[in-house]
Amino acid sequence: MVDKQARRIAEFIEPLRVEPGSHVDLAKDFDPRYKARVKKRDGAELLRTGVGLLAEYQAKLAAQDSYGVLFCLQAIDAGGKDGTIRHVMSGVNPQGVHVSSFKVPSAEELDHDYLWRYAQRLPARGDIAIFNRSHYEEVLVVRVHPENLDRQRLPEEAKGRDVWTHRYRAINDWERYLCENGFKVVKIFLNLSEEEQRTRFLKRIDLPEKNWKFSAADVRERERWDDYQRAFSEMLSATSTPWAPWYVVPADRKWFARICAAAVLVHTLMEIDPRYPTVGKKARKELRAVRRQLEDEAPAGAARDPYAAEHRPGRGKERP
Ligand code: ATP
Ligand code: MG
What Gene Ontology molecular-function terms does this entry list (predicted)? Predict the structure, then answer.
């Protein structure tokens, strides 16, 4: 049953995966409206299943306390990062999840190497860390607006023409290092079409309760659409690796994007296959001795073991 479910999920996300080493042309290779023949009316149930599985696996991940998961979400403005996080993580125990949103770097952050601020937010073992924007901004917005690179005050020899190739390599190496230490890196790119972005911006203007989300700067960024698409394509080509592949999630339909994001995360957790720790023979013997002691403490008329009396017929009966 679990195997069958795992296989179905793996098949479902396969078309979204960027084959390591492949050359991506985003506009040609990935359709923002793809929906794998899933009907919207089945969407809510599918998402519920995904959210439930996520909760189950996260509880085991935390109990095992050995692996950690870093979930990176990248998208263009209005791509749906916030909504995806809100829906996909709705069932998990908040104690085991930490969300970090990365904005324009502070003076202190700019005073360090470019991966420094992301390293501060990595997950602990047993945890899931979500990056709402991530270290990939360092090859996206920084690339599209080179003045960001100037602000990083790199020494001359670190700034040459190869700066992006070096960054891709450093990022791949960093993620490989994390993976080899038991921290799985899951990367989702929400792929929005230019027309759907226009519609969502207009909605932010039309609906008063969405006005706060609208920023004129987003519209200025939209003018650089083609530059961003090029930077996305190059990033996906250069940094989808066997240890941390990219998944390009079609984002024009929010309900479908959320199902995909949940499926990718569940798939990763299934691969980790975390288990509740079991106790050895000696510890079990100790548990039995303590149980006897606690059972003997039952007051007159109370069940010797109220839990067992309710859940395991024939055990933990009332004390005579
Ligand atoms: P929202 O959905 O609420 O708009 P957001 O992630 O777009 O969320 P904003 O505060 O609107 O948050 O924007 C953050 C800005 O910070 C983005 O324009 C992003 O490109 C920019 N940014 C992130 N990382 C860097 C970086 N390393 N250097 C320069 N700018 C960055
Ligand atoms: Mg924004």
Answer: kinase activity
Any domain includes 45: yes
Compute how many other C-beta atoms are within 10 angstroms of the C-beta atom of residue 42: 11
Q: Which domain holds residue 286?
A: 281-311
Give nearest CA residue, ligand 1 atom 7.
77
> Does 61 reside within a domain?
yes
* CA 314 / ligand 1 centre spacing (Å): 61
Q: What is the pTM of this model?
A: 0.93
Give the closest residue to 264 by CA, choosing from 275, 256, 276, 252.
256
82 lines ligand 1 (CB under 6 A): yes
200 CB less than 6 Å from ligand 1?
no
For residues 22 and 141, state if they share a domain: yes
Q: Give 183-216 pLDDT, tens digit per residue.
A: 999 999 999 999 999 999 999 999 999 999 999 9
Expressed in angstroms, the distance from the first to the final Cα of the chain is 44
Please tell me the total count of domains within the chain.
2
- Contact present, 59 and 91 (Cβ < 8 Å): no
Same domain, yes or no: 225 and 242: yes
